[in-house]
Amino acid sequence: MLQQKLVQLSSSLELFINQPWVCNDLWNQVMPEILFLVEILRKYSEYLVTTTASMSKLHHSNESARNSENSSTIYQIPACKCDSLHENYIQLNDAILEKQVYRYIDIQPYLPINIMKRY
Questions:
Q1: What is the pTM of this model?
Q2: Of 42, 16, 44, nearest to 31 (Cα)?
Q3: Could you give the number of structural domains in the chain?
């Protein structure tokens, strides 16, 4: 809808600047800016068409728009000093630190067996 309005507006401006009374010296001063505005409106309208098509394609796709393998930057930020880690987390911390590139780690083996102690 917005794209159609922009096209209509730019067409109206083009019709406006082709009127005979616009040949006045006063209009000659603003004419280049009006032409520049028409050009910007058209380019923005084309951008909207391209973006809408791209977003529609992503929206109806079964694949995620973002992929953790190529769209993320992962930083390792120590939450606490390594020597003050609770003993339950030392093995998990060591397993995570061994990985050079992010990979899935099943944390089930590192969790306490007793469910009540997990939380």
A1: 0.47
A2: 16
A3: 2
Does residue 78 share a domain with residue 55?
no
Given pLDDT bands bounded at 50, 70 and 90, which one contains residue 82? low
Q: Say how many Å lie between the first and final Cα of the chain, rounded.
A: 52
Residues 55, 6 within the same domain: yes
CA distance 106 to 108: 6
- Check residue 78 and give its pLDDT: 61
What is the per-residue pLDDT across 43-75, written as a single tens digit (0 to 9) for each? 998 999 999 898 888 888 877 666 666 566 666
DSSP 8-class letter at 92: H
The single-letter code of the amino acid at 51 is T
Same domain membership, residue 86 and residue 46: no
Phi-psi region of 75 (alpha: psi -120 to 50; beta: other; left: phi over 0): beta
Residue span of the structural domain in which 14 resides: 2-59
